[in-house]
## 1
Amino acid sequence: MRKKLLSCIVLNLVLHGVVLALEGINGENMHCSVRVLIADDNVVNRDVVTGMLEILQCETAIARDGYEAIECCKKDAFDLVFMDCQMPGLDGYSATRTIRELESKRGGRVPIVALTANVMYEAEEKCIEAGMDDYLSKPFSLNSLKEKVVKWARVEKSSGGADESGASALKNLGQTAEIHGEESPDDNQSTGVLDQNVQACLKALQAQGSSDMFTRVIKLYLDSTRELVEVLQAACRAGEHEKIGQYAHALKSSSANVGAIRLSGYLAELEIKAREEMLEDVEDRSANIVREYGLVVSALSDEVSR
């Protein structure tokens, strides 16, 4: 079943192909010497963040859960950590607390930015209480990620002063690293089955990267989510709280990435209800999700046929 969950959001893997096309934006080969640790249990999410950071010329390392994040911080020095809040085994909050305890003994403090999937139960206060410095809500844009790196990344100073290939290089990326349309969303385009702002960002990435990336993303979503919707329905019929939350969370993430924001919102609500074990209206919610998913499939199919 874990393979099904991973495959349902495998569409994001193609975003990694943008990296090669965007290396040296506008002909510039910038190396910012910023070391970033990405802690996330989802292989697809890790790949997306890695790809974006490579676009920004950052050096990256991977931790697959909270335990690995702690070990990475024990062994290596990082300028910044992006920490997923919800990870099995040891979540991001607990991992951050342990890292802060280690730092209190040995000195130093690495900036930790939370990667949150739902601000309703991963509020800023909870992140700060755990010892995190900031948070970034999923899904996020390249520009939003860049802002956090510029804000928090630490760059070692050489004898000649600050490393010009570090944070300053990131700032100098300026407009060149921007995806047109990201920073000025049109509220009129954010309603309906598909959020056109998200669609525009995907198409802009395609224009700068792989020529068929947008089509591949949509097709992968269509191919990989049907079975997940079916197992989510089955879990709803059986009243299996844990599975409902797990499946809703996975489908929520991939849906948001293709612009199905309304569907993602329905799934977020169901996930919260499942966690709270308040599923009196689960059948109605499931039926509503299935209907909305059908509209999303139809809209996305129209997009790729244009």
## 2
Amino acid sequence: MASCQGSNTGRRFYLAEASLPSKLVSYTLWMILKFSRLLSVTLLGITLLGGFLSACATQPAAPRDTSTAEELYRSAKRSLNQGDFLTAVNTFEVLGARYPFGTYTQQAQLDVAYAYLKQDEFDSAIGAADRFIKLYPRSENVDYAYYIKGVSHFSRGGSTMERVFPRDMAKVNQQWLRAAFGEFDTLVRRFPESKYAVDAISRMAFLRNEMARHELITAQFYYQRGAMVAVINRVNYILEHFDGSKHVPNALALMAGAYESLGQQDLQQDTLRVLQSTDPKHPALQS
């Protein structure tokens, strides 16, 4: 009997020892899970704190209340030259609010327009330039205000990817191109001696060709669908508004084809004669 009890005691002791590793594993897993939750909460707190500190760091520092107009302007100009356009705009606006009159405030209005342009905030850039034109119509820098407006319209619809893959200007909103052309045209007519006139003329030539190409693409679309009257109307629009464009010869050739399809041989021959005088080596004349 005694041996039997000893045997049972040994078995109980063996079972107790056998269950010890499983309890230890369970406790270890529990500690790991607890530590993981604690670590997750800690990391979340660090992330939120970092985001908060980063947001605070990006907020432009408010200029001192005692800053003079010159100090404010120099501070804003320094931010502008460093590419910190948000701080520059903020400081320029403080300058305008504290010192609404004066040379620095006048120049700041143009610098604000430039800063908005660099941030691709084209409506704000145009608005700032318009305010300058209304407030200082006799300023010697009015030409620059018109230039800013033209470049803002010209740049609409662009993106960072445009530096790698240039956009097709003939396919963007043509109202933007016409508005840009109008501002550059005003600049060149009113201020022919402006230092921005040369670039404005170059951009106008480019815009003229792109707008003509847009009309030509539309005319070709109509031609492919047999809408010959619409083709003729489009080509006439090109000849009226974009005379001198490099796309005029192709437009004339398309018009001649439209007249031929309509059976109007006389008008076709008249169009071909105009094409002959415009581009004697055009392929349409070789057939």
## 3
Amino acid sequence: MDKRGTALVAVVGGLVIFGVKLGAYFMSGSVALLSDALESIVNIAASCLMFYSIYISGLPADDDHHYGHEKIENISSLVEGLFILTAALFIMHTAIERIASPVELTEIESALGVSLFATAMNGGLSWLLGVKARESDSMALEGDAKHLLSDVITSVGVVVGLYVAHITGLTIMDPVLALIVAVMIVRMGVVLVLKSARGLMDRHSLDVEEKIMALLESHSSQYVDFHDVKTRVSGNQVFAELHLSVDGSLTVQEAHDFTDHLEEDLKNELPEVTITIHVEPPVNEQNKSASLS
């Protein structure tokens, strides 16, 4: 199954899980379970955005986007983060109303069983997305997998808390748990927004830079030096550039052939990296040329 197929499974699975969780809320009247169900709406929206972004990011570079479309995944995850924050505010509002006007919980044991079933489905979906993310090195799939995993952890906490409330009779624990869930969702949303924003700001990849320099060192006998190694991350692609000083006695063709060889080696070692090498004469020869002019 490719990335698009996995994203489609996430959308369909999210719809099914939302229906199960909503059923648990109607069975019990628990606002904590309602908050859990509402978070599934965020999951569905996130999965839809992920599906669309994966489709667009897979399109080849064109006349309007010379560097491809990889950053669409960062844009979609930024919007997803805003959705998460909006859902958290709604949950807080509902929980505060329920604290002011408590409602007796009904059929709580059956509802919790249904909720746990939905949580298990969510866990399975998170695992599948995580596996596919590692196979395809997809930031979008990895983000959705972690999002669903956090939903699983939150749901387990809600179920445990509500069961304690059912045993002790302290119904106020229901909206209090909803508020705790909302705070966790706020944190998730803020982290996602900040991470997405960093991805849009052309952050560098230290790991890729170190690998490029290591590979260049293995060819050190064939050039004078290198400098100004720079990288920028765009989705799961990395664009790199560097300056390479070569022997001034080399012909243009010889320098070109050598850089082609380097680029091929780098592509074999780092297939996700697109590199541009600027060839120049050694510094002392540049200075000599400048003095003569």
